# Entry
Amino acid sequence: MSRCRWDSIPDHLQSRVVMQSSGKVDVLPLVDASVQIPAEKHGVKMNKTEAAYYEILKREEEGSIILSQSVKLRLADNTWYTPDFLVFHRDGCDLAIEVKGGLIRDDAMVKFKIAREMYPIFRWKMMQKCKGEWREIRK
# Structure
């Protein structure tokens, strides 16, 4: 399992992640898209759809830092949301991505929308793989 010590993440990225998480975070699974680490090796178990989109992210987000399922966002008492990917760009325009297969349950869509409203520090994107094609869900 390839993991990155929290203190090795640049300060400007630490402050963004800490602001979004609750409790103490010591170690986060970390993938730097410029270093090709197979999805199954970086400390987070992904389903097939997430792993497929991760491969796209590695190509499209070269040079950015990609965190996979690393931060829990508090939405309400006993209600949490974990984006599939957080992408930290060098220009500071950060992205939270949710990846879904053919069926998107209502509760997943509601949590995504609430998180998008509560955490405007990120640009938000939901991607769906349906019949072998990727499309962005804009709701």
